[in-house]
Amino acid sequence: MTILVTGASGNIGRHVVSGLVGAGQRVRAMTRTPGAGRLPHGTEVVYGDFDDPKTFDAVLEGIERVYLFSAATAGFVDRARAAGVGRFVVHSAAAAAFPNGDDPGDPGISALRRHLADERVGHRAIERLAEESGAEWTHVRMGLLAANALDWADPIRAGEPVRGPYGGAGEPLVHEADVAEVAVAALLTDAHIGAAYTLTGPAKVTQSEQVRTIGAAIGRPAAFEEITPEQARTEWYDPDNGMDDDVLDWLLELHAASSDGPSVLTPTSTYEQITGRPPRPFTRWAADHADDFR
């Protein structure tokens, strides 16, 4: 059996590939940057692009199961089924499990609620492609990734403080290896067919705690410098790189909502129920990524 991992060069995809190779599986890794490396020896790395149907046939030839990245298209899923794919494990997000209350087009909802509604609609669309394909499926819905802290690598490497608002804001950040481990189990066993799993870390970790934890992992102090939301809006505004006013509106609202109080996303016990082990804490993530901050 050959398993296709789409989005193979991403934070989750790389771990899915490693887990499958470690389990002795034949793996084809689809990526738009096949020369980027960082995938295990023995992986068949191929160029593929969801926006370029001409790449689909070579990518899907001989494939039986697919880890389906969230950028997938209906055309790709249809071609996969025609090629003989019988199982999809969908790379999704926790927002897909949120109640279907908000309409993203409603001008009366807040920026954060609109963002979560957009996320829900987008990820449910990919999930439905798998559900309606006639293949077996599992949805792996991740919460906010601990890997978002990599955005702080430059100031921490330079010995500068991480500047941001709401130092007490945080979420139960999930280690990408936890997400990949569940995805690998869903690809290799029949125990998870038809399941939709929401995965988080074990507990809320505030921004200030994250920075201190990274400092401990690299062996020198790292500091969080609190600034006002207005300062953050000015410093972060960068529409050429996706940080426009709409994004800043929901991002600042997200931080405010979880500042010095409960996280927006409630921690789940899903990972422990599946594996029998507690999810990896942020301390483990920081240790695993210490070289990224040195």
TrEMBL record:
Residues 263-294 are annotated as: Disordered. Transmembrane segments: none annotated. Residues 7-188 form the NAD(P)-binding domain. Pfam families: NAD_binding_10. PANTHER family: PRESTALK A DIFFERENTIATION PROTEIN A, PTHR43162. This is NAD(P)H-binding protein.
